[in-house]
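Progress note, sequence design subtask.
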């Protein structure tokens, strides 16, 4: 396997260029269509996917992307390392124009995401991390010197932030809340009495726990592997856990069924 730092530098550059492509569409009167699974697809999804593939296809690892998800399990079941990509996570948020959408790029080794990059192009915020260097956040990406990874790290802040004296905080989905999530929050209220609720879209919810702005994110609703891999890598690099709700074990990737089980980030 290539050095993780080398792969991270490539993934960061790919995410930022993909974010630029997304914002060019965001600033137009774009339209969208519904895919077979009823999820929306915009020109931004397609263009971001093309940009990311242009960076990753020259490497020696296969790519599993939301926009290329039709790869049969028989073809990918023996993959040891691969890229797992969501070129535009939070397309619904993109359509709502609330800025809460991201580019997600993860590198998976032995079913475990060991590298994650999440770029929020509307707010110009980059999250990244690996099991080797930890997790970081970089604000004002476009004005930063991104020529090499050491410089990027030196301009970034290591995660998590100190908790301080804030109340116990739960992250909830902006678009996919459920009765089970409400029950989970009520259980926390019984324990902590005062519970602050943060709402957010896309993979930014995992990032809020990774950065220490929230204590827990229960996702008691469906997600796909490309929705969570980059966020899981960053959360784990920040010392957090992303656990299957039923088994209590870390979530695994490249399963036969790419649908995730319910999970909790804490």
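Output:
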């Amino acid at each position: 396997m290539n050095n993780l730092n080398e792969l991270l530098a490539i993934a960061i550059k790919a995410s930022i260029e993909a974010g630029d492509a997304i914002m060019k569409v965001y600033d137009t009167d774009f339209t969208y269509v519904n895919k077979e699974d009823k999820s929306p697809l915009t020109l931004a999804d397609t263009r971001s996917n093309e940009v990311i593939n242009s960076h990753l296809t020259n490497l020696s690892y296969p790519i599993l992307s939301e926009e290329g998800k039709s790869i049969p399990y028989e073809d990918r079941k023996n993959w040891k390392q691969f890229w797992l990509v969501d070129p535009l996570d939070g397309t619904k948020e993109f359509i709502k124009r609330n800025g809460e959408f991201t580019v997600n790029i993860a590198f998976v080794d032995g079913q475990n995401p060991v590298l994650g990059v999440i770029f929020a192009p509307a707010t110009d915020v980059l999250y990244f991390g690996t099991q080797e260097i930890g997790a970081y956040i970089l604000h004002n990406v476009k004005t930063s010197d991104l020529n090499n990874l050491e410089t990027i790290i030196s301009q970034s802040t290591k995660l998590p932030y100190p908790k301080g004296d804030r109340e116990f905080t739960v992250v909830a989905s902006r678009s996919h809340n459920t009765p089970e999530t409400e029950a989970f929050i009520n259980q926390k209220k019984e324990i902590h009495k005062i519970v602050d609720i943060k709402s957010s879209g896309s993979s930014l919810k995992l990032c809020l726990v990774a950065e220490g702005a929230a204590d827990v994110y229960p996702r008691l609703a469906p997600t796909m592997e490309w929705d969570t891999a980059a966020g899981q890598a960053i959360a784990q690099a920040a010392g957090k856990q992303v656990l299957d709700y039923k088994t209590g074990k870390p979530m695994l990737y490249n399963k036969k069924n790419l649908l995730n089980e319910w999970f909790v980030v804490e």
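The chain has two domains: 4-159, 168-265. Work on this subtask will continue into the next period as scheduled.
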